[in-house]
């Protein structure tokens, strides 16, 4: 009986590193389309319809040198489709689409504050030096202004702090827009 080893590590939603006793590989793409490149030189592309069990898989670079031109063409098309999915996923991750965060995210998804009290909420800005940012640089969007008041407090190297004051019992969602990028909403619950 031989000893087997296989480990798969998720890098992000569209990328996975696979390790085994004989080789390592990287898989990129989604459930519908993904492409795997191995250190052994093998490349595998799978195109499928999620939830149906239907898929098409093509491989190249295996030990066998046999192959047809049609397999090469299909493999190239699958590689291009997989690359498009990866590029789209990376652009979406970095906030290029929908004016999303672009590396800005709240330290917590939810905060609580009592009526008449304040709480600091912290916006993390990965890789950005925010120390020169001023209050006028931020557009603060609050969906329930009767529950909370929000004001800019201080910008630091990679974080921005805002002060939230509880006005009356309830909840509010807060979004911040900076340099054309809008954060996801953070919820602040106001309690008595």
Which properties best describe this structure?
elongated, 15 strands, 192 residues, 1 helix, mainly beta, 6-stranded antiparallel sheet, 13% helix, Immunoglobulin-like, 2 domains, 5-stranded mixed sheet
Molecular structure report:
It is a single chain. The protein is mainly beta. It folds into two domains: 6-93, no CATH class; 104-191, Immunoglobulin-like (Sandwich). It is 13% helix and 48% strand. It has one helix and 15 strands. It has one helix spanning 69-93; strands at 6-12, 15-20, 24-29, 33-38, 43-49, 54-60, 104-106, 110-114, 118-125, 138-142, 148-155, 159-166, 170-178, 181-182, 186-191. The chain has a six-stranded antiparallel beta sheet with strand order 1-2-3-4-5-6, covered by helices on one side. Strands 8, 10, 13, 14 and 15 form a five-stranded mixed beta sheet that branches. Residues 97-101 have low confidence and may be disordered.
């Amino acid at each position: 009986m031989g000893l087997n080893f296989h480990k798969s590590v998720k890098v992000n939603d569209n990328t996975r590193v696979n390790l085994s006793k004989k080789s390592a590989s990287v898989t990129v793409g989604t459930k519908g389309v993904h492409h795997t490149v191995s250190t052994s030189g093998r490349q595998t592309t799978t195109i499928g319809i999620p939830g149906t069990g239907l898929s098409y898989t093509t491989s190249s670079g295996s030990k066998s040198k046999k192959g047809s031109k049609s397999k090469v063409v299909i493999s190239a098309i699958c590689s291009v489709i997989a690359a498009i999915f990866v590029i789209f996923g990376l652009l979406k991750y970095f906030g290029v689409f929908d004016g999303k965060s672009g590396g800005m995210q709240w330290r917590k998804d939810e905060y609580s504050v009592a009526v008449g009290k304040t709480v600091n909420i912290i916006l993390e800005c990965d890789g950005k030096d925010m120390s020169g940012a001023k209050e006028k640089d931020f557009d603060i969007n609050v969906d329930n202004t009767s529950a909370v008041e929000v004001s800019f407090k201080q910008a630091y190297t990679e974080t921005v702090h805002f002060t939230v004051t509880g006005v009356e019992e309830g909840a509010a969602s807060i979004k911040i827009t900076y340099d054309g990028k809008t954060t996801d909403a953070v919820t602040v619950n106001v309690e008595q």
